[in-house]
Amino acid sequence: MDVENILNMALRLGAEEVIAKRTVKDDLQVRFSQNRVDILNNWISESTNVFIAVDGRTTGVEIKDEKFAEKELEKAMEFAKKLPKNPDFRGIYDRKTKSSSGPELKEIDVSEMADVAINSALAHDVKRVSGEIYLARHRVEVCTRYNHLEELRAYLLSTVRAFNSEGNPGQASTHVGSMADMLNYGPEFVGDKAGRIASMNTRVKDGEEGEFTVLFDPLTFGSILSSVGRSLSAFSVDTGTSFFTDMLEKKVASEALTIYDDPTRPGRGQASFDDEGAPTRRTEAISRGVLKTYLHSVSTAKKFGTETTGNGRDAGKMSSINPSYWQLSVEPGKRKMEALMGEIKDGLYIANTWYTRYQDYRKGDFSTIPRDGIFRIKDGEIVESWKGIRISDNMLRIAKNLLELSSDTIPADWWGETSSVFSPYALVEGVRITKSH
Fold this sequence. Notes:
Strand order of the largest sheet: 3-2-1-4-5-6
Radius of gyration: 23 Å
Helix content: 10-25%
Number of helices: 10
Oligomer: single chain
Distance between the termini: 56 Å
Order of helices and strands: HEEEHHEEEHHEEHHEEEHEHEEEEHEE
């Protein structure tokens, strides 16, 4: 589909600003269970999303077939003219941008990687292994009146769940965008970690309520970071759904926490330009616990009196007013995970969480369910495994109670919870643990 032709077509119909974003996907997936590969999928698709602004009114349309492009654009224009003006739209990026050379991951034998993950997990005391290896290869093309940009964005997702003889699990999941990261944190690493956690997760007993010092696994802390990333969006701040509202240049976390949005780093969120055509960059959002900036598109930046951070995303939908993070990277600490665990006199190591839900977005009150390994620690050693507990706490309280981060940072990513983060292990005091009653 010719995005430049679609752009010119929309301009001829009277659009004042247009973003035409074409995405061609060629994705490979291997799923496995019971220690063997079940299915191999290959999804190939193409779509073009078009954002239109006319006389201060905005709308979007998806075009699936170019021969119907003009008719779809005409309907979108007519619809836009019936809408009220969008007070949040302030324009799109109008300077020249260059795209990057693209990622390293293109040709990988996903079936072979599945075998590597399975065998790595089975090297531990586990009985069965399941999971998936997913190679995403997306050709992204963005065309506006000011830029015509194109690049390949590719990454590998590896997820393994291993189960011991008691049926108790351990899980690990990563995203990698370079060969170096794949060797360090790809399928072999993921299988090994899932197997190790599952082999420890035995003789599980009901947990206890109280406030505990907790060592969060990168997969667990990554879920917290994903919530932080969503609250960093200027749109979330503007709509009052961010726990960072009115907190610029204020202390929002422990001095141990420095967070960047870093789309320049290979991974699931790597990109050299956003959906408005603006160049992306490494943005320091929180520096030693102090909130330095929100994440902006052109429109939110103008509204807040600053510059875009290159976070305009989801062209054809709300890219002009709803910026979102690409991938979060945390500045690591100085000691290994084992050293942090050794500091715990009486606490927990939580390997993963599920169903993170908010009671109050604005305040940051939330709860989440630990799973795939909850371990009681006494005097720096794991003494038993738990089940049946919930974390019921506040995001800002967790951030401010952060004691220390590990020196090992893992590219964590897991469907529905942790998205595109580079997370260390995190030692947090006073975490509120509850149970269902």
